[in-house]
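Re: Re: token formats

Sure, here are both.
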Amino acid sequence: VYHGINGCTAALTAYRMVADDWDHLPLTEEEKPSVHLVLDNPNTLTLNNISYSYGNKQVLNNVSSHLELQGFIQITGESGAGKSTLMDILTGLRQPDSGEILIDGHSMAAIGRENWWEAISYQSQDDYIFHGTVQENIAFNGEKINDARILEIAEICGLDSLNQMGVFNPQQKISEGGVNLSGGQRNRLLLARALYKKSHLL
């Protein structure tokens, strides 16, 4: 019964996370990208007149910028200014109403979202923690877990703080939604998940 309830809770949570945004998600099959690029080390990202609206509410209006992809880049603004929406567009999770994004001078549409996703790691404020072990939540993709990488990331993210013993335990059980973790512990675990992928861009 317990596991059945956990499964239903996870499904309901996932539904609620996408229900409001369903019409904006890139669910249509992409055409085959016209550019074959290896994006292990993208250098520049250019936004050309990006606009986006939720119904009648416009949150982004002709946003343009050229970014050198090195060091840290900070996006600031008031609550509701469109920062999260902009990040969703930059990562290919949303399609802008108008404008284009260029990666090293090539449009994201030409490169393909799948190729772009291979080059980046993205931790959103709504990422989900599921019922399982710490290392399963970090590796996440179902492939064979790299134990050495898990330990490396655990040290970087301070995952020894996930239990009262103060010792990192990759087999520690995590409840659905991370309800047995504090907010700070959940953020550390999600950051570890993003870093585990070892992408050029985070």
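Second one below.
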Amino acid sequence: KQKTAQELAEEAAEEVIVYGVEENGLITALGIAEYEEADLTAEITRGEFYALLCKANAYPETKTADNLFSDLEVGAEYEGWTKTLYKVGIITTTRDGKVNVTDPITGAEATSLVMRTLGYGPRAEALGGYPTGYLAVAASLGLMDEINSNSKTLTKGEAVNMAYAALDCDIMSQSMAVGGKAEYKVQTDCTLLQSALGIELIE
């Protein structure tokens, strides 16, 4: 019996695309994250993504006694990584001091954080800011190729793909020109793999 168009559409809707299967091996080997294949379709929380992002950038976990967040106690899971990103200016708190580390993170939110760590924040802001400017810059760098939706919550597999792509992106750096005006320049052949993790790819 030939299936109807509705039956085919329903079957397609039930298919689950698992992102990050191939990329997961490198991310695990580098100590950035460690997921079983079965975990890759699950949502990733803000706190979990913060930890992944810190490790990809070789940012150390901050272990200090100062309590910076109203909803996250010192020493709680992901508190140190969250504190690191907060102190380097990658993330902010809500007006009441919350960071909501247990909430899922969307593709657009995660993309903006990655762009800031790579130094592309000023370019993204010049193109319209959050979210359109950040998404446009990320797309031009190939970071959005394996992301299902910017508005939906990010899966662990998509986060792995994003981290994998970010590792091989050239970094944008800031310098001061004559007159004190900031200038931004892409550092060709200077990636996170090289600058943060000290790894050279042999082609």
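Residues 156-167 form the longest helix (12 residues). Confidence is low (pLDDT under 50) at residues 12-16.
- S.
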